[in-house]
């Protein structure tokens, strides 16, 4: 949903028009938080092996918070047939966090699907991966910095 409002202010003989664009983003994806002491490439390998996915390493995700830019490891699995996209994202880097309100979570898995997706089965299989210490379901609508999870 977007909202556009226009207001006019009279200054001397001139009207100054102000435009305000308000955009409400939709967070219609699944989000899981993982606690894992392995490096991101090892976790991606384990998830590929255990869940039959094919994560590929992509350019780091850049996150701007306050005056600091942080870079976070980013892996993507995309299945064209089912239009399923799964992203493995490192929460913590040496410069900061993707979601600072969840500092106890090391990695996030973001799942976007236009079709059916077995959320509970996926969650249970994630929990069984040997290097995953804990797995959590996260509601993106309740996060303060949820805009950091919107990327191509």
What does this structure look like?
This protein is mostly beta strands. It has 2 helices and 8 strands; from the N terminus they run E-E-E-H-E-E-E-E-H-E. The chain has a single domain, classed as TATA-Binding Protein, CATH 3.30.310. It has helices at 40-51, 119-127, and strands at residues 2-11, 14-23, 30-36, 56-65, 68-79, 84-90, 107-113, 132-138. The strands form 2 sheets. A 6-stranded antiparallel sheet has the order 4-5-6-7-3-8, covered by helices on one side. A two-stranded antiparallel sheet has the order 1-2. A hairpin with a 4-residue loop joins strand 5 and strand 6.
Terminal CA distance? 20 Å
The strands making up the biggest β-sheet line up spatially as 4-5-6-7-3-8
Which series of helices and strands comes N to C?
EEEHEEEEHE
Shape: globular
């Amino acid at each position: 949903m977007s909202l556009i409002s226009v207001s006019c202010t009279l200054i001397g003989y001139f009207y100054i028009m102000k435009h305000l664009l308000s955009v409400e983003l939709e967070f219609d994806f699944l989000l899981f938080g993982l606690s894992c002491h392995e490096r991101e490439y090892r976790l991606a390998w384990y998830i590929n092996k255990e869940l039959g996915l094919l994560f590929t390493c992509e350019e780091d995700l850049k996150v701007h918070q306050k005056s600091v830019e942080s870079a976070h490891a980013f892996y993507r699995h995309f299945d064209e047939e089912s239009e399923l996209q799964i992203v493995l994202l490192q929460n913590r880097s040496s410069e900061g966090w993707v979601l600072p309100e969840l500092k106890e979570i090391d990695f996030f898995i973001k799942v976007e699907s236009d079709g059916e997706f077995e959320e509970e089965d996926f969650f249970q299989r994630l929990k069984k991966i040997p290097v995953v210490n804990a797995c959590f379901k996260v509601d993106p609508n309740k996060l303060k910095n949820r805009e950091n999870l919107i990327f191509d």
